[in-house]
Amino acid sequence: MTTITTPARTVAKAMLAAAVALSVGSVALAQQAQTGIVTQVNRLNGTVAIRQIPSGTVGATPGAAEEFKAPSASLENLHAGDRVSFTATETGGAKTITKIDRQ
Prior knowledge:
CATH 2.40.50.320, five-stranded antiparallel beta sheet, alpha+beta
């Protein structure tokens, strides 16, 4: 049995390959260590707001603070103004800290 490759099938395969490559890249990107400044710690809700520091760009202005869920044990020693290095994941629109260290 011979398989016939049509232009539509070729395009579909290319789109599938691109989608897989992008999804793998976004997972890897989510696990990269980032740096930022803690702007707010809410121990009651288990959240921390962090304003990320742009990496390597001179004169770039930092963006708005983002709120992350975090394990309560990791919030005990954090205070507003602390510079931190952290990794986070995003699942269903909720961003969660997986690791956070004061610098």
